[in-house]
């Protein structure tokens, strides 16, 4: 057997705010999870997403320090259509979460936007742009 990618784990310095951010993106985080030291949810398709408090990580790795520099991980959420990219970006930034790149039509054929979760991780929103008709000729 070879290892199977199964979980994305992140460390949260403000777990309630971080879970609020992901709930607003539709991640089914159980009620009351913000009071736990470790939170894990199954995503469609079987991949799991988890968050640990700094204290939880330091309970088994006392010398743990957060990474420095820019975001070290980025998660991408596919939206139903370009309007949904715009709507989620507006809702999240309106709720006080950090927007990084407002929605734009990317040259690779997607409506795209970039936010940062409360820990500074990149969170991309995207949806395919409608097919453009080919010019006659």
TrEMBL record:
UniProt xrefs under InterPro entries: Glyas_Bleomycin-R_OHBP_Dase, Glyas_Fos-R_dOase_dom, VOC_core
Per the record, a Pfam family?
Glyoxalase
- From what superkingdom does this record's organism come? Bacteria
The record's annotation in Gene3D superfamilies points to:
2,3-Dihydroxybiphenyl 1,2-Dioxygenase, domain 1
PANTHER family named in the record: BLR0126 PROTEIN (PTHR36503:SF3), BLR2520 PROTEIN (PTHR36503)
Protein's name according to its UniProt entry: Putative glyoxalase superfamily protein PhnB
């Amino acid at each position: 057997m070879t290892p199977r990618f199964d979980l994305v784990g992140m460390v949260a310095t403000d777990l309630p705010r971080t879970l609020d951010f992901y709930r607003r993106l539709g991640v089914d985080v159980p009620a009351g999870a913000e009071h736990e030291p470790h939170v894990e949810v199954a995503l469609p398709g079987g991949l799991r997403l988890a968050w640990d408090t700094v204290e939880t990580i330091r309970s088994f790795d006392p010398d743990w320090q957060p990474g420095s520099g820019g975001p070290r991980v980025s998660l991408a959420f596919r939206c139903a259509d370009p309007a949904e990219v715009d709507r989620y970006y507006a809702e999240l930034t309106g709720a006080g979460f950090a927007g990084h790149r407002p929605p734009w039509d990317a040259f690779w054929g997607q409506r795209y936007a970039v936010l940062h979760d409360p820990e500074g991780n990149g969170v991309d929103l995207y949806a395919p742009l409608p097919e453009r008709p080919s010019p006659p000729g």
